[in-house]
Design a protein that fits this description.
Helices cover 37% and strands 16% of the residues. It has 274 residues and is α/β, with parallel strands linked by helices. It has an 8-stranded mixed beta sheet, sandwiched between helices. Helix 2 (96-108) links the parallel strand 5 and strand 6.
Amino acid sequence: MQLALPDGYNLNVEEVGSGFPLIVLHGGPGLDHSMFRPYLDPLGDEYRLLYVDERGQGRSQRVDPATLSLEVFARDVDLLAETLELDSFALLGHSFGAIIATYHATELGTAVAYVISGGGESSDALDADVQASLNALGDGGKSIADSWEAEKSVETEAQLKQLLRDQLPFHFHGNPPPGYAEETVGSPEVLRYFANMGYGAFDYRPKLKDVDKPTLVIVGEYDRTTTPRASRVLHEGIPGSELVVVPNAGHMSFVEQTDDYLSAVRNFLARTRK
C-alpha cells in the first residue's frame, strides 16, 4: 500500500499478519523489502509485519538521492508510525536497514524494542571487515571487489541486478536459493549516490551506551560483510542487549537458517512484550 506521510511523501509498505507492529527495514541501499519474503512472513502469525520500501527505493516515490540520509530514513520510521497511528512498535533492520535501525536506537529511541540484524558499529570498521574478507578469498574476491566499485557508476536497474547477482555468493555461506532477489525493484540512483559517499559514513560507538530499549543483535556465523566481530561490538556497547550468532549462515542468515533466525526473533520479542 502507498501511504502518504505527514510530509506529503508516498511510502510503499507491505503489510502481513496482525498483532503488535514490527516495522522491517531492508538492506541495500537501492534495494527493497522483497529480500525478506517469504522468509520473515511466518512472523505474521504473531505480529503485524510492516515491510517498508525505504524512501526513494522499491515501489516508494522516487526522490533526489541527495535528499536522503540515515537521519531521513530513521525519521521515516516515526512518520510511518504517526501515519498508521501506532501507539508502539518494534523495529527490525537488516544490513543497511540495521544501520538505519541503529541510528534510530541511538538518536530517536521511540521503538519499544530493536532487532539489529547484520549491523555494524562504524563505516570504517565495516569497510575494513569487508576488505579482510575479500583478501581471504584471494583471486576469488577480485570480481566481488570489482562489483562493489561498479556501484559508484551504476546507471540502470538491469546493471544493479547484475551487480546483485555477482555479489550474492559473497553474502551466502552456502549457495543462494535459485532466483533469490530477482523480484527486487532496484533504485540504481540511490545505490550510486550512497556508494560514492561511504554508505552513510557512520560511527555509533560513542552513543551505544545511551540505548535504553531491549535490543537483539543477530548475525550469521560466517557473515563476511557485517561480521560477528561487529555484532559483538554492538552487543557489548548496548547495555542489556542480547547477541545471537546464527550457525552455518552468512550475511543472509534469515534465508539460510530461517527457523533458527525466526526462533531467535520470536523469543526476543516475546520477552520484550511481557
